[in-house]
Design brief:
14% strand; EC 3.1.6.4; Sulfatase_N; Sulfatase; alpha+beta; four-stranded mixed beta sheet
Length: 482
């Protein structure tokens, strides 16, 4: 979802009443970011509190390329990473993930191996349908075993956009909440639904109900799900003891046009390190702790949820590694603003840095000229000379500087011969130098692909007659075009 997809963020059709209500009763965080402009690295950062360059969710096959976890990927979240549910599990919390995992589909990478107690969802995107010969359809898991496959047992009609998946995910969430409340069991629920990711889908009751077409239908259904979850938390008497965060893994996919969402006033979208690719619509809700109707301009990141949740649960954040996430408690409860930078990475390259209201681009590019000429445009209708480049441009000796308060769309460069540039840039360069001096990249997990590791025979496939014969192993370097 994009920053501009919610009514409270300015979407004119205002079709997200539950999320808008959540913001009115909680805190809006308009300066909140993902740790990457693409799904898998962003989720790895959320779970580990660490930049993808540290936790290994990047590729070195080519410079500054986005990479993720299609089902042919060999790698996944390393055992050496300490994930949020692992820490919470040791503190007595019961954790469940509902929806997309996306941190590796081989057995050693799945959620229940990394701290989650329950899972209902899939290891990969809901792409397909596939023929189960050259490529298997994506499995859906309930716990440690698969219970079916997308397009076979869990239907998605690509012609009409109809699918009941979101309703299934809502029911799973409500049941989980009831069970934990009955047991008086502390819990962590990661509701990772994916209806707004192409191919976009919605259930029959929501199809055709939005002014925004199928994408709007999907947003309305997700909004309804959030409303039901918040209502259930209230009914169970848990509202005053529960912190709820809504956010997104990356910006709206502008290349998908009307199926890709809105990034509001920001430049470009998913896959890019411009504001539209990484600034996320974020709301925090906790009655009695977070005052209603407040706005925080704290620079926040999905990685901060790692540190914040552990701190609030009474745990200790790991000290044997660099944790990039900060504790947001002072911002959430006391409206404090902590001065910290935001780093924008694309693959193995630090592309940009935000400090206070300033953003400096050290590298720029959207996507290749060849790809653009074949119809893939990451910045449709947005051409900024020297900024939205179709080749990788190195600005490390003379970074491009913008003021995001005066210019949220990154349209008007602050020239290097101005006093403002001369005052600001040395401070940003010092931040970057310190960051790179202390950077120890993790082992890249997204370099190798192999058709034999795809979802041919997941655990439990034999019980439902869904096992497929894998091909012989033939590992090769993945090709990442973005």
């Amino acid at each position: 979802m994009g920053w501009g997809d919610l009514g409270v963020y300015g979407e004119p059709s205002k079709e997200t009443p539950n999320l808008d209500w959540m913001a009115s009763q909680g805190m809006l965080l308009p300066d909140f970011y993902s740790a990457n402009p693409l799904c898998s690295p962003s989720r790895a950062a959320l779970m580990s509190g660490r930049l993808p360059i540290r936790n290994g969710f990047y590729t070195t096959n080519d410079h500054a390329r986005n990479a993720y976890t299609p089902q042919k990927i060999v790698g996944g979240i390393p055992d050496s990473e300490i994930l949020l549910p692992e820490v919470l599990q040791n503190l007595g919390y019961r954790s469940k993930i509902i929806g997309k995992w996306h941190l590796g589909q081989q057995a050693q990478y799945l959620p229940l191996v990394h701290g989650f107690d329950e899972w209902f969802g899939a290891p990969n995107c809901h792409f397909g349908p596939y023929d189960d010969k050259s490529q298997p359809n994506i499995p859906v898991y309930n716990g440690t075993v698969m219970v079916g496959r997308y397009y076979e047992d869990f239907l998605i009609d690509k012609k009409t956009g109809e699918s009941n998946l979101t309703q299934i995910y809502i029911k799973e969430a409500l049941n989980f909440l009831e069970l934990q409340a009955n047991k008086q069991q502390p819990f962590f629920l990661y509701w990772a639904v994916d209806a707004t990711h192409e191919p976009v889908y919605a259930s029959k009751m929501f199809l055709g109900t939005s002014q925004r077409g199928l994408y709007g239908d999907a947003v309305r259904e997700l909004d309804s799900g959030v409303g039901q979850i918040l209502q259930k938390v209230k009914e169970l008497g848990l509202a005053n003891d529960t912190l709820v965060i809504f956010s997104s893994d990356n910006g709206g996919a502008t290349y998908a046009k009307e199926m890709g969402g809105s990034n509001g006033p920001f430049l470009c979208g998913k896959e890019t390190t411009y504001e539209g690719g990484m600034r996320e619509p974020t709301i925090a809700y906790w009655p009695g702790r977070i005052p209603p109707g407040v706005v925080s301009h704290q620079l926040g990141s999905l990685m901060d949820l790692f540190t914040t949740f552990i701190t609030l649960a009474g745990g200790k954040v790991p000290t044997d590694r660099v944790i990039d996430g900060i504790d947001l408690s002072p911002s959430l409860f006391k409206q404090a603003v902590n001065d910290r930078p935001i780093f924008y990475y694309r693959g193995d390259e630090m592309m940009a840095v935000r400090w206070q209201m300033y953003k400096a681009h050290f590298w720029t590019w959207t996507n290749s000229q060849k790809e653009f000429e074949h119809g893939t445009d990451f910045c449709p209708g947005q051409v900024i000379d020297g900024v939205t480049t179709h080749e990788q441009m190195n600005h490390t000796t003379d970074p491009l500087l913008f003021h995001l308060g005066r210019d949220p769309g990154e349209k008007y460069m602050i020239r290097s011969n101005t006093e403002e540039y001369r005052q600001v840039m040395p401070k940003i360069m010092k931040i970057v130098a310190d960051h790179k001096e202390n950077l120890q990249p993790g082992e890249p997990q997204l370099n190798l692909c192999d058709e034999s590791v795809m979802n041919w025979a997941p655990p439990g496939c034999d019980k439902i007659n869904k096992c497929l014969q894998p091909p012989k192993s033939n590992p090769y370097n993945c090709t990442w075009v973005h």
